[in-house]
Specification:
Layout lengths: L24 E7 L2 E12 L2 E11 L1 H53 L11 H21 L6 H11 L5 E4 L6 E4 L5 E4 L4 H13 L1 E6 L14 E4 L6 E6 L3 H20 L10 H21 L6 E5 L6 H8 L4 E5 L7 H4 L5 H8 L4 E4 L2 H14 L3 E3 L4 E4 L2 E7 L9 H4 L4 H12 L6 E8 L6 H14 L7 E8 L6 H20 L7 E5 L4 H10 L2 E4 L8 H9 L6 E5 L4 H4 L4 E3 L4 H13 L2 H17 L2 H24 L12
Parallel strand pairs: 4-7, 4-10, 7-9, 10-11, 11-12, 12-15, 16-17, 16-19, 17-18, 19-20, 20-21
Antiparallel strand pairs: 1-2, 2-3, 5-6, 8-9, 13-14, 14-15
The protein binds 6-O-phosphono-alpha-D-glucopyranose.
6-O-phosphono-alpha-D-glucopyranose binds next to helix 4.
Length: 655
């Protein structure tokens, strides 16, 4: 009857759903664009139904709102998701940057002489884990390899950790000298040098190049156009690069500064060091020449360079200037004096700075490391990190570590040596001694640090105290002439000769107990003497290590023979089953010689077995391996620093 204008067609009275008139109705009503709600209420007056009120409530807004709500929810989630992703990316970027910055700081920390960043709180767990992992890996590796170092294991380390890169050695003395034989042809001589004894087997295992002074008469007849020759002769495992030195250079650098200055400075053997400005100038010049040669031999920009001994105190720094990314291992084969004594050297700062160009500086003993650190403390402006045993100077760190040197095990000279009974018989025959003669040996360069005079005096004292040994005991001293151009060595030669003559005249009956063999002996010959002897007496007054003592033990695979050893050698720390003596104390030394001659075979065997077990373990491959593993760790750190863009790393010549 009456309808609002917006009432839809479907809700017109005529189209209402069937229902009972007078009764209310609530029902949904389908419209074109959605649902409506229909309510019919009767209108009555005193019981009579007058009509119906129809209310049509448009419900389509419900659908619209639902759609809107779901879209809004979706949008809201999308926005939240986006915001969360952006926040995550930003947070990740920020923490990566601060993480790498912190890592860089850790890597650079020791070189900047700032606080100990490695202990930064956020890194402590990571570093602890890494250390743990490293030590577990090391333990596993040691277990796997049976823990014994050998040429193969050293080679393996080089290939695995150093990508088989060859090594460059700089050492004054060459491992093979070409002299001219009696027929005028070049013949190879093995020099009497502890350094060569130790390092040569390492180079055979590692390959690379050994840069040395070419001092042999025929040295330059066998080299190529770059002054190089493959050695060992007939095997050719590595290159020997020979440097020609003028007479003036050799006199100033080798005889003068190195052997009249530094050698007596570092040994407590009562020979006065002589330092001359002209020698020093040659020392600088020759160190520069070696640095040039090392740079020429380098095939990569970060080679491993082993700088050997007191001839090259300036070389680590000079090599660093030319090859900033090189890993330089310097090894000082002789003792390092106390800081007070070291101060005698007029160029004390320059030498220390030169050595601190190295990444690692090695000595035989912790005591020598300590003396070096003391010298640095006294003469340089540098930071000493006692805990790490390192020196930080000019933003670079040098680790100062003890690496006790040793010999190859098993010795290659043992393989070709005749059986002990043959050696005993041959040597006695050659020396014109009776078959059953008791024999002691000494093997040295004729050097005033070796205590040769004290040794002969101890033999004399022995014969005075034990007359029953006269005519039964002889002492053969193999003495290789050495540095004979130096007056102190000439004087020593004369003194030793006179002393031997005096002792030999003392006992009458044509009995001459001292057999002084003043000549160069090749290793097979020396091994024959070791094997022929009843005892070997090493009486150095001061010696960084002394490898004669270790070689004697290596030669005695029959487990016989007694080693009498000066307590002033580095070796005395390791070879505790030797009879250790003070060579100045002639009473004690002669008592030890007597004890050696009277020792039962069972005790000799027990001592020798124990010494040999020690040397089998602590051989020269271990010496080199430990240094190279330390170097490897430094290289990895430098390479990582470089990758992280941590700036200078090795580029600034960092360790
Ligand atoms: C010592 C030095 C070595 C040297 C050897 C022989 O052992 O530490 O560097 O090679 O003596 O001396 P020489 O002067 O003949 O090389």
């Amino acid at each position: 009857v009456a309808a609002t204008p917006t009432l839809p067609e479907q809700a017109a009275c005529a189209r209402l759903p069937p229902h009972v008139r007078g009764e209310p109705l609530d029902a949904p009503l389908a419209l074109e664009d959605g649902l409506a709600h229909l309510s019919i209420a009767p209108i009555a007056d005193r019981g009579e139904v007058l009509g119906e009120l129809v209310l049509v409530h448009d419900m389509s807004f419900l659908d619209r709102r639902a759609t809107l709500a779901s879209r809004a929810t979706f949008l809201a989630f999308a926005l939240v998701g986006l915001a969360a992703s952006v926040a995550t990316v930003l947070a990740a970027r920020f923490s990566w940057r601060s993480w790498t910055a912190e890592l860089r700081r850790i890597l650079a920390a020791p070189f900047r002489a700032t606080g100990d960043v490695a202990t930064t709180r956020s890194f402590r767990p990571v570093l602890a884990d890494v250390r743990d992992l490293v030590s577990r890996l090391a333990a596993e590796e040691a277990a796997e390899s049976g823990a014994r170092w050998s040429a193969e294991r050293l080679r393996h380390v080089l290939q695995r950790d150093l990508q088989g890169e060859g090594i460059i050695v700089a050492a004054n003395r060459e491992p093979y000298i070409h002299e001219r034989g009696p027929d005028g042809q070049p013949r190879v001589v093995h020099p009497a040098s502890g350094l060569v004894t130790a390092l040569e087997p390492v180079m055979r295992a590692c390959s690379g190049t050994w840069v040395a002074h070419g001092g042999g008469a025929a040295d330059f007849e066998v080299v190529d156009e770059r002054d190089r020759v493959r050695v060992p002769p007939g095997d050719g495992a590595y290159w020997l690069r020979r440097l020609r030195l003028t007479e003036e250079e050799e006199r100033g650098y080798y005889y003068g500064f190195a052997n009249e200055g530094l050698w007596p400075l570092c040994h407590v053997a009562h020979t006065r060091p002589e330092f001359r400005a002209a020698d020093h100038a040659q020392y600088q010049a020759v160190n520069r020449r070696f640095a040039e040669a090392v740079a020429q031999e380098a095939e990569v920009e970060d080679p491993i360079v082993l700088v050997q001994d007191y001839h090259f105190a300036l070389l680590p720094k000079l090599v660093r200037e030319r090859l900033p990314r090189a890993t330089i291992l310097a090894f000082w084969h002789i003792p390092w004096p106390s800081a007070e004594r070291y101060g005698i050297c007029p160029w004390e700062r320059e030498l220390l700075e030169g050595l601190l160009g190295a990444s690692i500086l090695g000595f035989h003993t912790q005591a020598h490391c300590n003396s070096f650190l003391e010298s640095v403390d006294r003469f340089l402006e540098a930071r000493l990190d006692r805990e790490r045993s390192s020196v930080v100077m000019g933003g670079r760190e040098t680790l100062v570590r003890p690496y006790p040197i040793s010999i190859e095990w098993p010795s290659r000279w043992l393989a070709g040596a005749p059986p002990v009974p043959d050696c005993r018989a041959e040597v006695r025959r050659e020396l014109g001694l009776p078959k059953g003669a008791l024999l002691g040996v000494g093997v040295d360069r004729l050097d005033y640090t070796k205590g040769v005079e004290e040794r002969l005096l101890a033999v004399e004292r022995l014969l005075q105290r034990a007359p029953s040994l006269r005519g039964r005991f002889w002492f053969a001293q193999l003495a290789a002439p050495s540095r004979i151009a130096i007056p102190a060595y000439q004087a020593l030669n004369e003194r030793v000769e006179q002393l031997a003559a005096r002792i030999n005249q003392q006992f009458g009956d044509g009995y001459r107990p001292i057999v002084l063999l003043r000549a160069h002996h090749e290793p097979p010959d020396i091994f024959r003497f070791y094997r022929a002897a009843d005892l070997c007496y090493v009486s150095s007054l001061h010696d960084g290590m002394n490898l004669v003592a270790k070689e004697f033990v290596a030669a005695r695979d029959d487990l016989r023979g007694v080693l009498v050893l000066s307590r002033f050698t580095g070796a005395a720390r390791d070879l505790t089953e030797a009879l250790v003596v003070n060579p100045y104390d002639l009473e004690a030394a002669s008592t030890a010689l007597l004890a050696a001659l009277e020792m039962t075979p069972a005790e000799q065997e027990e001592r020798m077995r124990s010494l040999r077990a020690f040397l089998a373990e602590f051989n020269v491959y271990r010496w080199a391996g430990r240094m190279l593993l330390d170097a490897t760790r430094l290289r990895r750190r430098d390479r990582l620093a470089l990758k992280l863009g941590g700036g200078p790393a090795a580029g600034e010549g960092r360790a």
